[in-house]
């Protein structure tokens, strides 16, 4: 189901889609059996086989190509009209075994027609089928089974069609949101670099011009300007390094989003929180938890063979003080617990560097469980907006105009 709502991209997806659609052709067994019998002459059988082939061609054209999106309404109208005409002609000519063709007509109406048109087209198709069926003696059976089936399957197909189209729209919207987020991040980076370097580079340019004019007549003053240029350059370098380290820092919010995407792409059911917990340790502690989450999810995707992965956060009070606990558990093979690799070894050192503890071992569901506990320091655990302002609404120490603009 990973390709649900996606256009066919390769031969394998084409084969899969063909099987999903073609499997429903099994309901044509009655017309085929009727043609293989001895009840019709040679001319009638030739007419029947040709008509049945044309019917299947029109049906596959509609359902295979136009369920997700209609590219040419003229083709849809002509194909649907031909499908209905063939169902009427073949059922009228050959009798009750061919009435099942109207089920495919109702499915095609639900798959490609707009909802307001399908709402009356499906009952109308069923009514035509009933009128043709009145020529036989099995009216009660017809009304009790085939007519109800035609209506239900037709309207069920409208739901499938809307689900397919909604899935396509959601994929497009997600791609748009990702692109907008990338654009916003680029704008933020450009804005921050301008704020960091704009003033410094302007000052360096000005002092360089002054030093050049002062150098022939006042070399001592020119030397002072050069010293100022060196100081401003060093401070600009420090600011840039701090900004870059901030961009490189792992955050739990970003890793949670990445974990959901990675697990879903790998076919693993992801039970992952939508947001990071409100109570968090400092930057180094959060970074350690983010790395722990990334390493655990990577192991689940690559090695576990799991069908489900659960991520949970818990705030605990221990003898050493309050801690934030991250647990990642899967229901896979659990082999990673007995042979930790370089990733888990490095992760253990990273967590211990911030005073935390990393535990790995078998989970409660036969799989693998990773638990990382990181202590909360003084001042940690506040809402993210509480540090920005003090009780009088003024900017508190630690916040800055640059930080708020970013």
Secondary-structure topology with pairs:
Blueprint: H1 11-22, H2 29-36, H3 42-66, H4 73-94, H5 101-112, H6 115-133, H7 139-214, H8 219-248, H9 252-265, E1 269-271, H10 283-304, E2 308-318, E3 321-330, H11 342-353, E4 357-362, E5 368-375, H12 401-405
Parallel strand pairs: 1-2
Antiparallel strand pairs: 2-3, 3-5, 4-5
Helix pairs in contact: 2-3, 3-4, 3-5, 4-5, 4-6, 5-6, 5-7, 6-7, 7-8, 9-10, 10-11
Give structural notes.
It is a single chain. With 406 residues, the protein is α+β, with helices and mostly antiparallel strands. 63% of the residues lie in helices and 9% in strands. It has helices spanning 11-22, 29-36, 42-66, 73-94, 101-112, 115-133, 139-214, 219-248, 252-265, 283-304, 342-353, 401-405, and strands spanning 269-271, 308-318, 321-330, 357-362, 368-375. Strands 1-2-3-5-4 form a five-stranded mixed sheet. A hairpin with a 2-residue loop joins strand 2 and strand 3. Helix 2 packs antiparallel against helix 3 (42-66). The chain starts with 10 loop residues before the first helix and ends with a helix. Residues 1-8 and 381-406 have low confidence and may be disordered.
């Amino acid at each position: 189901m990973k390709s649900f709502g996606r256009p066919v991209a390769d031969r394998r997806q084409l084969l899969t889609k063909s099987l999903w659609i073609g499997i429903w052709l099994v309901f044509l067994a009655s017309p085929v059996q009727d043609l293989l019998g001895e009840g019709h002459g040679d001319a009638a059988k030739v007419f029947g086989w040709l008509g049945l082939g044309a019917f299947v061609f029109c049906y596959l054209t509609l359902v295979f190509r136009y369920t997700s999106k209609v590219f040419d309404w003229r083709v849809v109208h002509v194909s649907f009209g031909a499908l209905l005409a063939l169902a009427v002609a073949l059922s009228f000519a050959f009798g009750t075994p061919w009435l099942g063709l109207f089920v495919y007509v109702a499915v095609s109406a639900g798959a490609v027609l707009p909802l307001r048109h399908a709402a009356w087209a499906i009952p109308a198709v069923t009514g035509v089928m009933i009128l043709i069926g009145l020529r036989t003696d099995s009216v009660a059976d017809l009304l009790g089974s085939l007519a109800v089936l035609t209506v239900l399957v037709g309207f069920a197909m409208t739901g499938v069609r809307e689900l397919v189209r909604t899935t396509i729209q959601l994929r497009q919207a997600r791609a748009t949101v990702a692109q907008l987020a990338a654009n916003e991040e680029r704008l933020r980076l450009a804005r921050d670099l301008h704020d960091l370097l704009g003033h410094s580079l302007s000052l360096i340019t000005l002092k360089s011009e002054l030093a050049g004019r002062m150098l022939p007549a006042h070399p001592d003053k020119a030397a002072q300007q050069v010293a100022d240029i060196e100081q401003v350059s060093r401070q600009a370098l420090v600011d840039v390094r701090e900004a870059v380290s901030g961009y490189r820092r792992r955050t739990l919010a970003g890793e949670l989003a990445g974990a959901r995407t990675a697990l879903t792409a790998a076919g693993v059911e992801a039970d992952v929180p939508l947001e990071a917990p409100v109570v968090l340790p400092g930057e180094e502690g959060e970074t350690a938890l983010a790395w722990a989450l990334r390493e655990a999810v990577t192991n689940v995707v690559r090695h576990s063979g799991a069908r489900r992965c659960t991520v949970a956060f818990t705030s605990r009070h221990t003898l050493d003080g309050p801690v934030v606990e991250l647990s990642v558990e899967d229901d896979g093979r659990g082999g990673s617990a007995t042979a930790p690799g370089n990733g888990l070894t490095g992760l253990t050192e990273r967590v211990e560097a911030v005073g935390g503890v990393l535990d790995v071992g078998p989970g409660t569901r036969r799989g693998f469980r990773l638990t990382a506990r990181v202590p909360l320091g003084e001042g940690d655990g506040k809402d993210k907006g509480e540090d920005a302002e003090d009780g009088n609404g003024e900017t508190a120490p630690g916040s800055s105009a640059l930080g708020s603009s970013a």
